[in-house]
């Protein structure tokens, strides 16, 4: 594709939440600062607001305000259109997105623009119908809302970004930087993207996906018949537990225990045990210097190879990389050996 024009949508202009500035700053940093020694010409960046354009450069309003030189009409003709985020009310409260915004996004796509979202910007692309039938992602904290609101979208909360050719989506915050560097890699080649990453003091490519950042939910239950048994199992994960063992301790048949646990937690006994063991392994990797082999034994996952297998499958990276990403933050003495 080569370096072309990049139009970044600014969806809020008055009282902009400070946390939204992060996603907005990412494409500005990647595409807005000329790097003529890497590629000439570099990208042409324009910020396009959903409000009235400030052609004369005069700011107004109170608090933190953004006034852009361009408006939604200026999305037309851009090679790439990026939506960094949408207002919180559109995500959390279901407030409607601007019809003018969704119409401008559809027009830009129909004109041949490459469409990109960072974090909650996926809600704008979905509202415009540009994600229908496509695999897409967003921040894992909002993925369920995206999937529920737009059932035609194939939401994958496990990845950092999804490249579906002419429509690309990323998870939140720093994953937006991963995607923007990926765009540079696609447009200008790996050498340019790698050197730009060095200048930004970031990794050119991060291993794994969002799974390594998603806390493993501890399934609670109000079922007094199995609640104590699950608590006991959590305290004895190093044992070779079976469904029969847990059912016997609950004074139930294996079939009854299976049905009760699935009704209470939404998962099977085998999957529940695996989730608990992986959760404990993550805690031990974060909070101790224990060898991988020992962590496998303490969590009931067995050998170091078996622990690596399950980590790669369910977390997305090996245990050693997870430990480097989440170094010890609590005293080792506070963790059960």
Could you give a short description of this structure?
The protein is an alpha/beta fold and 337 residues long. It has helices at residues 20-32, 88-92, 99-110, 121-127, 143-149, 174-188, 190-199, 227-235, 243-249, 254-265, 269-287, 292-299, 304-314, 319-325; strands spanning 5-10, 44-49, 70-71, 80-83, 114-118, 135-136, 154-155, 161-163, 167-170.
**How do the SSEs run, as a string of H and E?**
EHEEEHHEHEHEEEHHHHHHHHH
- Mean pLDDT score, rounded? 86
The CATH class label of the largest domain is Alpha Beta
What about the largest sheet? Answer: 7 strands, mixed
Q: Report the CATH architecture of the largest domain.
A: 3-Layer(aba) Sandwich
The end-to-end distance, rounded to whole angstroms, is: 55 Å
Q: Based on Cα principal axes, name the global outline.
A: elongated
Strand content: 5-15%
Protein name: Transcriptional regulator GlxA family with amidase domain
InterPro entries: Class_I_gatase-like, DJ-1/PfpI, Homeodomain-like_sf, HTH_AraC, HTH_AraC-typ_CS, INH-QAR
GO molecular function: DNA-binding transcription factor activity; sequence-specific DNA binding
Keywords: DNA-binding, Transcription, Transcription regulation
